[in-house]
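Homework help board

Subject: predicted structure for assignment chain

Our instructor gave us this sequence and asked us to write out the predicted structure in token form, then describe one feature. I got the tokens but I'm not sure how to describe them. Can anyone check?
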Amino acid sequence: MKNINRWLILFLTFAVPVAMSQTQKSATKKKAFSWKKYHAACGAGNDSREGNFEKIKGKSIMWRGTVGEVLKDPALEGNRMFAEKVIRVKMEPSDGLVADVKLKLRKSDEEKVNSYEKGDNILFKGKIMYLGTRLSDHTIEVEKFKKLKPTAP
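My token output:
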């Protein structure tokens, strides 16, 4: 009987805390915030979009989409932090004709942006900074971005 009690004490001392620690770790892992979730919360069809956006603003994301166009943004001309060119990205689902998201890029990425063109698939990571409207894109301040290889039809 003493051996059983010792084993039980050892088990409770070591195994249970380890199992609880693993459960806590998985509970604290952040789930990725997808474009679909963002679009549902802040898209043009949601009447609570502005209130929802206030809770989401500044959140880090990693999304993929298709380049709608690359253009010079007059509002960024002479900006010391951001490149003058932006990448407008079409997402799925979409509210925009050409794009849904505008990527504000770091000044150091100014040359890299010149290799992007309409139809390129892109993966980007950054922070959601501005809520789009029917006339303007949602804006992401980009930390990293890269062109994805075309998918076979």
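Reply (TA_rk): Your tokens look well-formed. For the description, you could write something like this. The radius of gyration is 23 Å. That's the kind of observation they're looking for.
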